[in-house]
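### Sample
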Amino acid sequence: MKVFIILGFSAAIAFTAVFFSFLQIGKDTIFEQIEDSCITKAIQKGSSLVDYAAHYEIKRKIQGSGIATPTLLLAFSKFPEQESQEISQAAERMEMSIQVLKQKVCQRHKRSLHPTDHLSADLLTMIANISGCLPYMLPPKCPNNCLANEYRLITGACNNREHPRWGASNTALARWLPAAYEDGLSQPRGWDPSIRYNGFQLPSVREVTRKIIHAPNEAVTEDSLYSDIIMVWGQYIDHDIAFTPQSTSRTTFLSGMECQMTCEKQNPCFPIKVTTNDTLSAGMDCLPFYRSSPACGTGDHSVLFGNISVLNTRQQINGLTSFLDASTVYGSTPAVENKLRNLTSKEGLLRVNLKYYDNHREYLPFTDQIPSPCAQDSSASGGERVECFLAGDSRSSEVTSLAAMHTLWLREHNRLARALKRINGHWSAETIYQETRKIVGALHQIITLRDYIPKIIGPDAFNLYIGLYTGYDPTMNPTVSNVFSTAAFRFGHATIQPIVRRLNAQYLDDPELPNLHLHQVFFSPWRLIKEGGLDPLIRGLLAHPAKLQVQDQLLNEELTEKLFVLSNNGSLDLSSLNLQRGRDHGLPGYNEWREFCGLPKLETHTDLNTVITNPNVTEKIMEFYHNPNNIDVWLGGLMEDFLPGARTGPLFACIIGKQMKALRDGDRFWWENDEVFTEAQKQELKKHSLSRVICDNTGISEVPADAFQLGKFPQDFKHCNNIPGMNLEAWKEFYQEDELCGTPKSVENGDFVYCSESGKSTVTYTCHYGFQLQGEEQLTCTSKGWNFEAPVCIDINECENEINPPCHPSAICINTKGSYRCLHTDPYKLAEDGRTCIGNGCEPTA
């Protein structure tokens, strides 16, 4: 960690020498007559505007009212982890600094500037440094040891040795087509109502929802082939590969207005226009909407910045690794992974809930943000609280079915880890953890590509876009694309049932656990813990059908009228959020994506009828959009007739198929790739299934052979004794202690993993989060014993990090063993980020 910091600091110093060279060499730049002090002041002003807005206190509002508004709950679920938060704020500082600087230039030159007017590379470098973006735009330092070929990094970095940022967490989503912004820079389509598209203004996303997408709860066509758990798996896997955090700011940068209280379009607020008779209006002409966090840099260049002069176009961050690697279980940053691990265990276990158990089975631990904004049981006595869960992804508590899936895989990790320890008693805790993580990641890949995706895009599209596995392709970029995460993979929202069912051991309704409406389980982990545990909920998912995506029954009112409603304190609309998010991200329109996929463009109403067979629906679409070229890609893809044997139309099948091929072929650690697993281990992995995971980690004894396939109980269900699973004996290692070298020395606050390199016995040491190695990382057994002394793990003093200080300047940083604390002084207190001192005005202190 310290090496990286020194590298970043050295680079910053080196660039400082050339920061002002543009003043002499850039005679053709628009900034040639602006003195350096003016530039510095402009950048400082841009940064301070973002910092002020960023520390508006969500948590205080939640604690103060006792009830979270739906908008604040969404903000909580979309709030980035600390590393993502730092990158987000740095990128917003950079963007705002450029805006302020251009305003100053406009005032000086008395002329307006287009947002894409040229900025010199040196000036952009200077802004990147002062804003804090520079360290995040450096290429990652990849480890060069035996272990790097055995296990993927938790961040996903260095998977591709030539492009180490491909697929890594906290990098930009991939653009498969150029962004479509109104100003060519960052302004979403629909921001300026005076702009016309093919002669027409874009429709309000809320009106599109109300008139085209919304369906009452009673208007549900059930899927005759697939069970409700197929919808849950789609959501769970989406949360494994994509998370685009919202801006951390709750107020506008320029005016300081709270986004919930203004309908003015001003970053980061992009409010959704509503009519006065709208059920969600709450007396305002808009619904609040926060823009997604921008990204620092271009994401995939190993050379610093690449072409810095084209860094203007706004990109969005993926806070997770792009890979199918079970980051839902383990996290995507070292800090999150550290919170999830039980480092005192000798079995490589994950942390579990120490307060509650489900018939002696484990629950997820609670988040350390206490009190969390999750709903509470109103009948609980003595103020007993059930907090939000802590998992590899921050959205694990959004609905009970998602929390159940996360819990299932926590249990599976610990079950496998204990079994591997019994088989290989000589393995260190780190070896067990990494081997188990590797197996769990492989199971996520198998269940998704073998069992799930073919049902979604159909056999023809699977063969066309994905096909058979032929090995790792280092030229394939696995980074999740913006259109996949923001549009195509959100098809699953149209398959969500409005009712949550819980069934008894005979798969019958349980009078003690009645059906619930979906809005009753939003952010309600207490229902999982206090109302029967996992088993009744999972039985309901297995035995009841998913909702079928029908063109005039897309999203039910639980999603369009009651999203994240916990009281009478308002609600949100998932459909409008999806449409607005697509515009926020600069996604091109529906027809451009059809052209991208080699599908014919639809130029007329008649053309539209060829892919959407419900004439009433096409009539409504044309009434609002007027021209097929104006249709938002999420709506257009969602409306298309299904391909044979699929649950998506041709456009989304194409986008999902292309993305899945990239995730598979561009992953050096894909389970089928040579040397990731032995042939014997691959054969065992193939035997496993989601049904087997359910059998091994719940009290359920009868399941379908394919959990996603809908069947009737009992005739279509099998006893768990007849559900195949893998034999872990394929992982048995015949260990004989090296007579020459003996067992390697253990280290405090770290561990080692055996590794074989060039036929020699080696061990690689790692330190726990918050510590760094001092000494040799890798030891090799020679005729004279281990070639080096074992290293030691020493505490990192985070407070000495001048490039990315862990605490805001308003707080005092205190180093602790393996971590740090940010302290405040009276009368101030810490904000929700745990890093900033704030006063009553919710603003950072000087």
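The domain at 750-796 is CATH 2.10.70.10 (Complement Module; domain 1). This sample (Thyroid peroxidase) is used throughout the tutorial notebook.
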